[in-house]
Amino acid sequence: MADEKMSEGSAVECLDTQDMVPESRISLRNTFAAMRYPNFRIWFAGQLVSLFGTWMQVTAQGYLAYQLTKSAAFLGYVAFANGVPVWLFMLYAGSVADRVPRKRLMLYTQSAMLVLAFVLALLTFTGLIRPWHILVLAFLLGIANTFDTPARYALVDQLVDDKRHLPNALALNGSMFNMATALGPAAAGAVYALLGPAWCFTINGLSFVAVIAALLFMHLRPVPLCPRGQSPMAGIVEGLRYVWRHENIRTLILLMGITSLFGLSFAALIPAWAVKMLHGTATTGATINGLLQSARGVGALLAALTIATVSHLKIKGRIATFGTFAYPVALLAFAVARSTALALPLMALVGFASFLVVNLCNVLIQSQVEDSLRGRVIAIYSLVYFGMMPIGSLLTGWLAQWASEPVAIIVSAFAALTGAVLIWMLVPRLRAMP
Questions:
Q1: Which domain holds residue 264?
Q2: Does 170 fall in a domain?
Q3: Per-residue pLDDT tens for 14-71?
Q4: Is the separation of the CB atoms in 123 and 133 below 8 Å?
């Protein structure tokens, strides 16, 4: 009997050990591993609804801004206004995310974004909307997003109980964002054409109810927080020092900066591209704009699902390196497209390749950072990611206004390609990251 119990115990131990070893094969079980956790499922559903509304607003707001001003440069100004708070407050927001419960912080930020969406909707419904309103609301939304971002990214670690599934949870979190990117803009184009932009903003305001409800329903395990006696500035300095001394994280943040500055800033020109390059009219321009944004989201969604599928394999650095070369090449091809039928698949390819890099940088950083510093390190990552994007958008908008939209995109693509070559030559450690 004792031998039977020992054999039974050994079998259980063997099964547990096998379960602890990541499978080397590709399977749906690996792709959706994080979905076994109730908190993650609740989070995924609530955030998906909210992000769907967010992308409806982003798409409609960009096209409305272009209709009001007929200026590609103004599109850059809106992106810049939205990004300025990143430079002003992101490091402090990261310190806050490590000092207070992240769930509570997100309830405040999501509620603020709900209010701002309804204000934009009211101004548009009443016909009072002016370009400066869009700039001010973009700035205020940027503040809310700045405090929301480190808390939201760091919260993913609390949604799974097993650290082995954190890379998969982060990849699926990216897929949720990209699924909304794929569906939201297309829906915005249709709603904008049929009902007007104000309804896009209203839908976004209502969508925040879903994520607020999800946060209230979740019961999260506690995580270590900063000592209450530590000043926010000391916390910021500690985070900066940690990133500087951690070579892998430092390399990934550098890569993220290059990608954001040169590889993502072109998105600010999509509304103008829909009208000028793809010959959109007053009625079809909004639809083409939405389809282009959605095509980019489809590509990004495929990238996130690809990463989720291989998240247990030690090849992430090589995939990220491939992405650094693939997205500028795809962007160059998009720059010469003059038909919607050709532009859409090329935009999807740009989205796929660029978000391979973006999502993998996030996965690799969060897989290596200490829990007590997670909010601050994500804030530094986000400062580079979101901070470089408005600068790139501003430069791209100016270049488009001075030369043309295709010239602006071609210059961005060549700059990104140069960055990829330099990283290949000078930072071989990226290819070796697991």
A1: 37-219+229-432
A2: yes
A3: 333 334 444 556 666 778 888 999 999 999 999 999 999 998 998 899 889 988 998 8
A4: yes
